[in-house]
Amino acid sequence: MLQATRASKRGAKPAPPTIRPRAGSSATPVQAALQLASLRMRLVSLVYEGILLFAVLFVSSYLFLSLARDAQSGLPRVIFQIYLLSICGAYFVFCWARTGQTLPMKTWHMRIVTAEGGTLSKGRAFRRYLLAIPGMLSGISLLWAPLDRERQFLHDRLAGTRIVRVNRKQ
């Protein structure tokens, strides 16, 4: 503290305080330095994600239906649904494994990281996607978040991932 006072008297900016884990906490310094994104921010980003996915799936559906002509029942419908889930999966897994962010997450300055604060592997990103499908479609992940001690979605808790805030410079 004394150094910060001296630095401010000389006109230099003091170094920003580092967030350290509490005594007896099992959190590493990296985990403690990560600020979890608020539930409100993640829900707003989720709405933006839905709008973006609508456009991607609209174009993908057009391409599929222009070739298949009909996907209203039977095997073509099942293939169409698997195709759309695969398009979504490719988008999410690619973005999460590459940068940890989709376009809406970049807009809202959020990133998906492992519980330890590292980047996601393709395997963990794929696992998160597979866990998110039933959790988000049924609403269980959304209902879980207000009850969770860190306000994380259920699929994040199960996959060992966290959605954190990032600096605007990154």
List its salient traits:
single chain; 170 residues; mainly alpha; 6% strand; disordered N terminus
Set out the fold topology:
Blueprint: H1 2-10, H2 29-33, H3 39-68, H4 74-98, H5 103-107, E1 110-114, H6 122-138, H7 140-144, H8 154-159, E2 161-165
Antiparallel strand pairs: 1-2
Helix pairs in contact: 3-4, 4-6
Q: What spatial form do the alpha-carbon principal axes imply?
A: elongated
As a percent range, the share of helical residues equals 55-70%
Number of spatially distinct domains = 1
Which strand order spans the largest sheet, edge to edge or round the barrel? Answer: 1-2
Largest sheet: 2 strands, antiparallel
Q: What radius of gyration results from the CA coordinates? A: 21 Å
Distance between the termini: 29 Å
Q: Treating each run of at least 4 consecutive H or I residues as one helix, how many helices?
A: 8
Per DSSP, what share of the residues sits in E-state strands of 2 or more residues?
5-15%
The low-pLDDT segments are: 1-9, 12-27
The helix-strand sequence is: HHHHHEHHHE
Mean pLDDT over all positions: 82
Structural class: mainly alpha
